[in-house]
Amino acid sequence: MKSGCEDRTVKNQGLIQLPALKKFLTPQSGIRKSKTSRWRAAALIFLNLLMVAHIIQWRIMGRTVSPIEPSETMHTLQRGAINAGVIFFSLAILATLIFGRFVCGWGCHILALQDFCAWILKKIGLTPKPFRSRLLIYVPLIAALYMFVWPTAYRFFSSSDPGPLVPKFTNHLVTDNFWETFPSVAVAIPFLFICGFLTVYFLGQKGFCTYACPYGGFFGLADKLSPWKIRVTDACNQCGHCTATCTSNVLVHAEVKAYKMVVDPGCMKCMDCISVCPNDALYFGFGKPTVAVSKSSAIQRNYSLTWPEELLGTVVFLGSFLAVRSVYGLVPFLMALGCAAVTTFLFLKTWRLLKANEVFFHRFNLRTSGRIQKAGWGFLAFSILWVCLNAHSGWIRYHEYEGDSAFQRLQIPDELALAQANPDPWLTPLDRETILEGKKHFQAASNFGLFINGDALSKLAWFEYLSGDAEQSVALLSQAAAHQKGQASALSLYYRGTILNRLGRYEQARTSLDEALAQREDLILARQEKGESLWQLGRKEEAISVWRYAVLLNARLALASNQLAGAERSLGRFEEAIAHEKQADQFTPNDPLYHWMIGLRLKNLGMNELAEKHFQRAIQLDPAFQGQPK
């Protein structure tokens, strides 16, 4: 992607400068077929079969080894959770420090996907050409530092009492919720398409590895310290077969000539170069690592971009990444990186298509003699559509971000807002402004978004409730729960049940709370609310049983203990009531707001005597409560 005439050179050379190029890139090139590639393909297929077997075993047994995925290491760094992922990642880095970047080439399911996509493209006559950038090559390392180093550093330096860098270790080697940290199938399919097919088609066979994979960022550093490298003997005649065969976009022939070994950390030790060498001049051997090699004579490389394009591409990559990451609550980190890499290529290629006289892509003539060809118009249409989708995602992501920021700025405690049907008396002027701002942004994202963001809907529902539209809040929470999973869905159902309780629709509230508890049994707040629903329905013994179980799970639940005390008192069981009241007094915070909240909740249940006690305690702690509505 230099000038128009240089695009023709790029097309013919595949971005690789070889000594005898015309001879070796003809169909009768004489490059022998790699025997190693078959073994590597078998290893990658076996890896994917093991992954399928792992999932099947979990589905059958209901319990299995935690995901063997490097991303699981984040849970170790943030929560101290020792899982199979951190063990695998640690062993993989250790192996790379010794033997080089074998894990990527022989044990990565995403690389297997890229190889499969490249194989399909070659079957239809398209050979993926490597896209080479000076700056974007650092994306994997930056992404790795962001994933694994930044959260720990931020927690340590932003807190006045940061505690240890790594929390106390806990055992999470086995799990019964294998899919908890993975995206849904609806997200996984486009992820595989973008990070597999599109990155290969536009960026080359290892496009995702080169410009997006954060794990490769660490593996690349470790590879520089490895003493085992692909090395060369004096039998090398610089034929270039090795470079023409390499799928990792490494200039093998140039590196072994300059350094007597391959020093590029992008080398994934596929061993194809060794297998195709006609003189058997290449071998995998022990010696000096990359960091010990003098690089006085730099290798001349062909880059796809000029320096102005590099800088523009960096801006486009960052903008695209920020636009799509977590948009609609769907796009995961790795997928966002893959999208950004594809967006950068399409944007820069389109820029050149509109400016240069001669532009080629694969075997297609996009522009010839200053005229855009049919293939060029097709490319331009796809590129504009892709970039516009990115821009739209960025607009939606902006509104989601601003709405979430407003949500975080709310000062009214949830417990107080939910203590009665009308939370308006407890809202400050700042809260009211924040609610209006948050509603505006979330409604814009909801009205113009292409997909439904369950988390954004649940926050919009909270804004609606605080602004006085409880019915709309209930409807939005139902919709949010349907588009969430796990803990998020359970919380939406809990809030829905709580608001229905305040509206006096107790049977619907009980159903919603039961659904929340079915998804998350340890949601004690939902048990407290379920007890209120049962009490209001006249099923008092069931309510007492539910409250007792909640207190059994957590003896420090002041509200549940107060509810039990009031329930026992109303049924004439004064001895039990006194015991529960003492327990409640022991754990009730000495906070006027909390006492007032408990008073309101007890009054709703008709436990007026105990409610009045808490109202008076709140007034005693803060006389300003004297005039508050009960």
Question: Could you characterize the architecture of this molecule?
Answer:
By secondary structure, this protein is mainly alpha-helical. Among the domains are: 11-229, no CATH class; 429-548, Tetratricopeptide repeat domain (Serine Threonine Protein Phosphatase 5, Tetratricopeptide repeat, Alpha Horseshoe), CATH 1.25.40; 555-630, Serine Threonine Protein Phosphatase 5, Tetratricopeptide repeat, CATH 1.25.40. 63% of the residues lie in helices and 4% in strands. The protein has helices spanning 4-13, 21-24, 36-61, 73-79, 84-99, 102-107, 109-123, 139-148, 150-158, 185-203, 207-211, 214-225, 241-245, 252-259, 272-276, 307-324, 333-355, 374-409, 414-417, 429-448, 454-466, 470-482, 486-502, 506-519, 524-536, 540-553, 558-570, 574-587, 592-604, 608-621; strands spanning 64-65, 81-82, 170-171, 174-175, 228-232, 282-286, 359-361, 364-368, 371-372. The strands form four sheets. Strands 7-8-9 form a three-stranded antiparallel beta sheet.
Strand content: under 5%
Structural class: mainly alpha
Radius of gyration: 31 Å
Shape: elongated
Uncertain regions spanning at least 5 consecutive residues? 1-28
Q: What about the largest sheet?
A: 3 strands, antiparallel
What fraction, in percent, of the residue positions are helical? 55-70%
- In total, the number of strands is 9
What is the number of helical segments per DSSP (H or I, 4+ residues)? 30
What would the average pLDDT be, to the nearest integer?
A: 91
> End-to-end span in angstroms?
72 Å
The largest beta-sheet arranges its strands as 7-8-9
